[in-house]
Amino acid sequence: MSIKIEKKITGYEVAKAESEAQKAEKAAAKVTQIAPLLERDDVLVGSTYKIKTPHSEHAMYITINDVMVTASSGEEHRRPFEVFINTKNMEHFMWIVTLTRVISAIFRKGGDVTFLVEELKAVFDPRGGYYKKGGRYMPSIVAEIGEVIQQHLVSIGMMEGKLQTAEIQAKRIEAEEKLGKDAISNGAQCDKCNAMAVVRLDNCNCCLECGDSKCG
To answer: Which among 165, 145, 158, 125 is positioned nearest to 50, based on CA atoms?
Structure first.
């Protein structure tokens, strides 16, 4: 297609064809729009969990609030939106505020947030961990916060796993009746959850913390 030039030519420049590498570089430089943040309803449904460690005389209360999200199929489901951690122990104030803001920001981004569980549970306190009630070893307070988040995600169906079901509670009662009240505290370590709560019932090793059993 020819173009008629009406004005006097004062200069010119030869236009070079873009190479494939230049085209790829421009395409990579384009900003991809991120997904919008989840919106907060006026009223949210949530759960509060209590953590009590031997390292502090004050308990820690973790509240996780959920928002209802509608999937493409039209089905509604709960997913975490924000987390609050409260304690009278001001020694932890700065990192608690930081942790709650970061976790809440990740929750609001949407998508798969289950990776937080393993990241938090992998944090070890250089001063040493502690055993919680039932004989389960916790490498740090942050790790136990990760376990609380895991428990919450399991309860709302975002992660697979076992909670303290009626079956496990029944096995605890059975163990105390057959083996004595100290059966749980004297249990062996579980290969699955690391809790010192494995006892032998009916010729089968069973963990009274997570329910893992070698007999199925």
So the answer is: 145
